[in-house]
Amino acid sequence: MNLLTKKLILFASGNGSNVENIIKYFKNNPSIKIVLIAGNNKKAFVFERAKSHNIQTLIVDKLFFKKEFINNIEKYNADLIILAGFLWKVPEYLIKKFPNKIINIHPALLPKYGGKGMYGNNVHNAVLKNKEKTTGITIHLVNREYDKGEIIFQAETKVDSFDDVQSLVKKVQVLEKKYFPRVIEEYLLKN
C-alpha cells in the first residue's frame, strides 16, 4: 500500500451484501483499500464475507458510545468510514473526529422516510402504505441527526401497483449495487 492509497472502514450490522459489493468493486483498485470491517452483531454474516476476503474485523460493543472507542479505529488512518447497513446511531465524538468523512446509504429518497426506526423493511412498508410513486436510495454524509446529513447522491426507481416489500427490497438493492461503490469512489477523488 502506497502513501496515496485511500483507506476505507466499513460498518455493517447484518448480511453485508453492500459490504461485499464494495469489496468486489475496489478489489483490484490499487488506490483504494478496505482496511477494516466493523459490526455490532457478532453473528452477522458480514464477518464471514470479511474473512473470505482476508479483511480485518472488529466487533463493536457498547464501547462504541464512549470516546475510548476511537483508539480501535484511529490506527487504520481511514480516509472514509462507510455505513453499509449499520443500524446504530454514530456518536457525536466520532462525527467530530471524522468531519464529512462518514457516509451512509439509506433505502429511501430522503428527506422522506428517514429518522429513528426508519431502516430496512420499515422504510419499504411506509413507502407502500403512503402509495408513493417512486422510492430509491440516498447516499449522504452523517451528522448528529438520523438521516439529516448533506445528500451526496440519490437514485430513484418506480413503485408499481403490484409491488410489495420484497419487490421493493430488490429494486432498491439494484440501485445500491450499481451506485454505492461509484459514489464512494467519486467522493474520495474529490475530497
List key phrases describing it.
191 residues; alpha/beta; Rossmann fold; 2 domains; 6 helices; globular
The neighbouring-strand order within the major sheet is 3-2-1-4-5-6-7
Distance between the termini: 19 Å
* Share of residues in strands: 15-25%
User: What does the overall shape look like?
Assistant: globular
**CATH architecture annotation name of the largest domain:** 3-Layer(aba) Sandwich
Number of domains: 2
Question: How many H/I helices?
Answer: 6
Number of strands: 7
Structural write-up:
By secondary structure, this protein is of the alpha/beta class. The chain folds into two domains: 1-99, Formyl transferase, N-terminal domain (Rossmann fold); 105-178, 3-Layer(aba) Sandwich (Rossmann fold). Helix content is 34%, strand content 23%. It has six helices and seven strands, in the order E-H-E-H-E-H-E-H-E-H-E-E-H. It has helices at residues 17-26, 46-52, 70-74, 92-97, 120-129, 165-190; strands spanning 6-12, 32-39, 57-59, 80-83, 102-106, 134-141, 151-158. Strands 3-2-1-4-5-6-7 form a seven-stranded mixed β-sheet, with helices on one face. Strand 2, helix 2 (46-52) and strand 3 form a beta-alpha-beta unit. Helix 1 packs parallel to helix 6 and helix 5 packs across helix 6 (165-190).
Record the SSE blueprint.
Layout: E1 6-12, H1 17-26, E2 32-39, H2 46-52, E3 57-59, H3 70-74, E4 80-83, H4 92-97, E5 102-106, H5 120-129, E6 134-141, E7 151-158, H6 165-190
Parallel strand pairs: 1-2, 1-4, 2-3, 4-5
Antiparallel strand pairs: 5-6, 6-7
Helix pairs in contact: 1-6, 5-6
